[in-house]
Amino acid sequence: MMQNVHLAPETDEDDLYSGYNDYNPIYDIEELENDAAFQQAVRTSHGRRPPSKTSLASSIGRPMTGAIQDGVTRPMTAVRAAGFTKAALRGSAFDPLSQSRGPASPLEAKKKDSPEEKIKQLEKEVNELVEESCIANSCGDLKLALEKAKDAGRKERVLVRQREQVTTPENINLDLTYSVLFNLASQYSVNEMYAEALNTYQVIVKNKMFSNAGILKMNMGNIYLKQRNYSKAIKFYRMALDQVPSVNKQMRIKIMQNIGVTFIQAGQYSDAINSYEHIMSMAPNLKAGYNLTICYFAIGDREKMKKAFQKLITVPLEIDEDKYISPSDDPHTNLVTEAIKNDHLRQMERERKAMAEKYIMTSAKLIAPVIETSFAAGYDWCVEVVKASQYVELANDLEINKAVTYLRQKDYNQAVEILKVLEKKDSRVKSAAATNLSALYYMGKDFAQASSYADIAVNSDRYNPAALTNKGNTVFANGDYEKAAEFYKEALRNDSSCTEALYNIGLTYEKLNRLDEALDCFLKLHAILRNSAEVLYQIANIYELMENPSQAIEWLMQVVSVIPTDPQVLSKLGELYDREGDKSQAFQYYYESYRYFPCNIEVIEWLGAYYIDTQFWEKAIQYFERASLIQPTQVKWQLMVASCFRRSGNYQKALDTYKDTHRKFPENVEYSGQNYSASSKGERLSARLRALPGTNEPYESSSNKEIDASYVDPLGPQIERPKTAAKKRIDEDDFADEELGDDLLPE
Q: What pLDDT is attached to residue 103?
């Protein structure tokens, strides 16, 4: 076998590619003219053929490829796949890419004024207007959003007319028409133009060419609900419910929740209960469970209240807390865990949990006083049910609510007993209980105990702003204002929204005579609490201390706009106008103060002196007589009455009054016949007002008693309360009506 194998010699290794450039001289066409054999062949065969091009095909046989016959060149089909189609004439250059033709002619420009182009441009403008309308709505500019929506509607109608002239009606862009009408209806609704919104929705719903437009009847039901037309709202909700297929379970549940809310607002609690019971049986959720509890509370069914509360706390939260705990020391796993601890999904879970706790706490506080013979027994039942659920940490909050309820009933011993038990539990509950105990002892003027429990609260939770505020209050009560300010500042660092600490630090700066800093604190607080009479009063008081009465009057006028019937604020305004020399304005506000509280002796004194100065003796008499009724042991009021009678010319009445006064006060050294003058030093009455709230004291709008201005407490002790306030009555805010905003917004 090996005899046929030939190995390449080693001498050929350097010339492995030799011979590739060699070619047969037969294929050399450059020397054909000098090749005698070739020329002879041409002369003897092809050269003898007749030169006529009209020879019969039968005489010359099959025409060759590329030959011209009858003026037509035979196609070169054999090389068509390579890109060659035909040759023009013999002798034409080889140009398979047609490069000899030159550059291609430019494309024909589209006519901008053609109907199709106009329609496309108009359609683009309509889409842009709809988008601008939606953007303006999201930015809060509702008027601009409505204007853009109207412009889109006008241009869309022009577009439809132009399209009908060019094409058939079947080619109209229904999606664009739907989006324009829907956006217009939505903008009418948010601008509270409900009639226009309903008309636009009707145009969409009645058009059979729009598929699934019936669901918009839910939006129409929302509008009727806002108009308090409950029967029509329920009608349209049910029509929308019929339009939603059974597979779209979530949408059907939302519509049924809206039906339940409408029944509640209409006062038809039994019908609302049927809706919510159906929801809780099909797809339980927190809002439906909460509203169901409220409905049973409204009809007073104790047992059903308990069952509804139990259904509420069994609604699954669907939150997996374990995934936020790293089970191993793997650095990659730890990084992933840290990344998801505060992402958007985690924030949504926290909001859902907070909402669940709010509904449970509110429901418990609402039903606890009525489900048992006493509120204490009702709270105990709620606590036991909560302890057996996934919300076990809320049981301690309910205990604190129980203590707060005892406080409202003035049963301080029971409240202290409950709080002392809670004070021995874990740090969070311990801090809350100690904070409340500190507040109780502070209100009882036991500052030592208040300070002790405030220290316990702060040590248990250094980031508890209420505990730090209470500690600052106890230090304030001891007169250490600098240290109190430090505690208030720390409370604000932990919670910048702690308005109590901000208010109290303003009072502290006022005590330290740092009026500019105090004014800054109260102005910041005014930005948070716009209509707080206490804050407005303190700002006015600081301006008065800064000797700026015009600003003080301006801020007191704002207090009057908030509480127009407060007699102390009115009398303070009268005092400031009196200082400015405006007697008429001073009289107006003093008189208004007297109308609302006719027992303020300083106001009565000023009004009497005013009528004496203006020589209206008869009118002055009625004020001094009232003063004598308020202070019957003060002889000066009887003497002033007698003096007014004498000056008015009624001498007999004056004499009788002097005799009666002498009989009541026989030991008085002042004799009846003294010539009292309204302008004399002895009789002239002071117009100063001394019964106003203390300058550093929290303002009490309903207080009618005199307040000692020599010492005042800062804003009262802070009782840490649970997250939601107890509901005392059923109103619209008791119901989870967030579902009323299910209007579908255009994208």
A: 66
**What's the whole-number mean pLDDT along residues 148-168?**
86
Residue 544 β-bridge partners: none
**What stretch of H or E contains 68?**
strand 68-69
For residue 180, give the amino acid letter: V
Which among 306, 304, 266, 260 is positioned nearest to 282, based on CA atoms?
Answer: 260
From CA 212, how far away is CA 744, in angstroms rounded?
A: 13
Distance CA 326, CA 154 (A): 59
Give start and end residues of each alpha helix (H) in 375-426: 375-387, 394-408, 412-422
Separation in Å, CA 735 to CA 221, 287, 364, 644, 743: 18, 8, 15, 64, 19
The pLDDT of residue 45 is above 90: no
Structure tokens at 596: 């609302």
Gap between the Cα atoms of 235 and 221, Å rounded: 8
Residues in Cβ contact with 271 at an 8 Å cutoff, skipping those fewer than 6 apart: 263
- Better-predicted residue by pLDDT, 670 or 684: 670
Q: With both helix axes pointing from N to C terminus, report the angle between 583-596 and 567-579 in degrees, rounded to the nearest 10.
A: 160
Torsion (CA) 386, 391, 393, 398 in degrees, nearest 10: -40
- pLDDT cut 70: percent of the chain above it: 74
| Lowest mean pLDDT segment, chosen from 111-115, 393-397, 436-440, 585-589 | 111-115
Classified as helix, coil or strand, 311 is: helix
The token pair at 81 is: 């796949």
Mean pLDDT, range 47-66, rounded to an integer: 50
pLDDT > 70? residue 233: yes
User: Does the global pTM surpass 0.85?
Assistant: no
| pLDDT at site 50 | 54
Cα–Cα distance for residue pair 449/432, rounded to 1 Å: 16
Residue 190: alpha-carbon gap to chain centroid: 16
Residue 122 has pLDDT above 50, yes or no: yes
The contacts found for 365-370 with CB under 8 angstroms, 24 or more apart, are 365/398, 365/401, 365/722, 365/724, 365/726, 365/727, 366/293, 366/294, 366/297, 366/726, 366/727, 367/293, 367/297, 367/305, 367/306, 367/309, 368/398, 368/402, 369/405, 370/297, 370/300, 370/302, 370/305
Beta-bridge mates of residue 69: 72
Looking at the DSSP assignment, which residues form a beta bridge with residue 73? 68
How far from 678 is each of 583, 615, 683, CA to CA, in Å?
Answer: 16, 9, 6
Residues 484, 487, 492, 497, CA torsion sign: negative
Token output for 107: 């494309």
Give dist(CA 432, CA 448) in Å, integer. 19
Kindly report each contact of residues 556-563 with a partner whose C-beta sits within 8 Å and lies 24 or more positions away, as own/partner: 559/533, 562/531, 562/532, 562/533, 562/536, 563/533, 563/701
Alpha-carbon span 452 to 475, nearest angstrom? 11
Q: Regarding beta strands 72-73 and 68-69, do their DSSP bridges make them parallel or antiparallel, or are they unpaired? A: antiparallel
pLDDT band at residue 419 using 50, 70 and 90 as cut-offs: confident
pLDDT at 69 over 80: no
> pLDDT per residue over 372-418, tens digit each?
888 888 988 998 999 888 888 888 888 888 888 888 888 888 888 88
Alpha helix locations (H) across 8-114? Answer: 36-44, 57-60
For residue 323, give the DSSP letter: G
- Amino acid identity, position 371: I
pLDDT at 729: 32
3-state percent helix, strand, coil for the chain, nearest multiple of 5 = 65, 0, 35
How many CA atoms are closer than 13 Å to the CA of 472, on its beta-carbon side?
30
Q: Please answer whether residues 371 and 302 qualify as being in contact, where contact means their C-beta atoms are separated by less than 8 angstroms.
A: yes
Residue with tokens 């000899």: 100
CB 517 within 8 A of CB 509: yes
pLDDT level of residue 173 (50, 70, 90 thresholds): confident
Residue type, 151: D
Q: Give the angle subtended at the CA of 572 by the CAs of 568 and 573, to the nearest 5°.
A: 120
pLDDT band with cut points at 50, 70 and 90 for residue 525? very high
* Element of type H or E holding 664: helix 651-664
Count of residues in the chain: 747
